[in-house]
Amino acid sequence: MENSTHFKVFRLAAYGDIGQMKYFNFALVTVLYFVIILANALLIGVICIERSLHEPMYMFLCALFVNQLYGSTGLFPALMFYLLSDTHDISLLYCCLQIYVLYTYTLTELSNLAVMSYDRYICICYPLQYNNIMTPKTICGLILLSWLSSFFLNAINISLSLRLQFCDNVLDRVYCDNYSVVKLACSNTMLNNIWGLAVTVLYISCIIFPTIYSYVRILQICLKSSKETKQKAFNTCTPHIASMLNFSFGWLFVIIQSRYETAHLPPILRSILFVYFLICPPLFNPLMYGVRMVKIRHACKKLVNCITTEQQGELSSLPSDYAQTDAEWDLWEDPFCQIWTLGPPNFRTAVSLTIFLKYLSS
C-alpha cells in the first residue's frame, strides 16, 4: 500500500518572519479594525434612528454596512492573532469557517451593490412607479435574498471542500481562500471546479450584467434630462459606482493571483492586494457615503447637535442656570435626540469624541 499523509492542519506561509515589525503591523491592523467598526456602526445607528432615512436607498446602505462589519470580523481577529503568533498553523475546520465567512461576505457585497443599482434604476427611470415597486416587503425580500443566497451557495462550496484529502498543507496566504485550499488536494476536485464555475456564471449573469445594464439605462435617461436631474442622479449614483469599482478591483486581483503566477510581485504587495477587498471597501464606503449623501450628513449634524446640547445641560449646576431656547427644546423633542439620551453614558461619550463623526458634520 502506498504511504501518504493527509493533512488536517495548514500553514499560512505569507506571514513569514518579520521580526519586531510584527508589533507595528499589529497596531496598524488594530487601528484599521477599530475605525471600520466605528464608522460602519455609527452609520448603521444613524440610519436606524433617523426617521427621514427610512427609505429604500438607506435601508440597502444599512445592509451594506452590516455586511462589511461581518466580513471584517472574518479577517481581522485572525490577522491580529497570527501577526503576534510564532506559529501560523490553522486547522481545516477553522480554515473552512474563514472561507465561508469571507466568501459569503463577498457574494453578499456583490448582491447588495446590485440591489442598490436596481433601486437607483427604478428611482431615476420610473420615478412615478418607484413607491409602488420599492415597498417595504420588496426591500426586505431583496435584502434577505442577497444574504440567504450567498449563505446557501457557500454552504455547498464548503461541504465539497471538506470531503477532500490534502497531501500538502502550505498556503502562501495570510488567510484561507477556497481555490488555494482545493489546489492542495490529492483527491478528485472535479465537483469543486464545476460548482465554482457554475456559481461564477450565475453571479455574472444575475449580478454583474444587470448592474451594468442599470447604470447604462440611468446614463441614457440622464442625457435626455434637465441639468438638475443630471446633478441629482450624479450625486446619488457616484458613490454606488465607486463602491462597485473599488470592490471589483480588489476581488479581481484575488482571482488573478489565485489562478496565475504572481511571484514576480514583492510578497508584501501581494499580501496587501490580497486583503484589499476586505479592508478598503469597509473602510472607505462609510466615509464616502457619509460625505456624499446629504441626508446622512444632515443626520450626523443632528447627532452632533444632540451631543453638544446634552453636554451643555450636564455642565449646569442648577436647572435655572441653563435656559434653553425654543429651538433647543424642539431639538430635544426630536425622536433622534430622545433615543440618543437614553443610550449608555459611556457609549455617548465615546461617540462624542470620534473624529469621524466630526468630519462628517463639517
TrEMBL record:
Provide the transmembrane region boundaries: 23-46, 58-84, 139-160, 194-216, 237-256, 268-291
* UniProt xrefs under InterPro entries: GPCR1_Superfamily_Member (IPR052921), GPCR_Rhodpsn (IPR000276), GPCR_Rhodpsn_7TM (IPR017452), Olfact_rcpt (IPR000725)
> Which part of the chain is the G-protein coupled receptors family 1 profile domain?
39-289
Keyword vocabulary terms for this entry? Cell membrane, Disulfide bond, G-protein coupled receptor, Glycoprotein, Membrane, Olfaction, Receptor, Sensory transduction, Transducer, Transmembrane, Transmembrane helix
Q: What is this protein called?
A: Olfactory receptor
Q: Which PROSITE patterns match?
A: G_PROTEIN_RECEP_F1_1, G_PROTEIN_RECEP_F1_2
Record GO terms (molecular function):
G protein-coupled receptor activity; odorant binding; olfactory receptor activity
Which species does the entry assign this protein to? Salvelinus namaycush (Lake trout)
Q: Which family does it belong to?
A: Belongs to the G-protein coupled receptor 1 family.
The residues forming the signal peptide are none
Q: How does it sit in the membrane?
A: Multi-pass membrane protein
Q: Which Pfam family, just one, is annotated for this protein?
A: 7tm_4
Where found, per UniProt?
Cell membrane
The principal localisation class reads membrane
| Any one GO cellular component localisation term in the record | plasma membrane
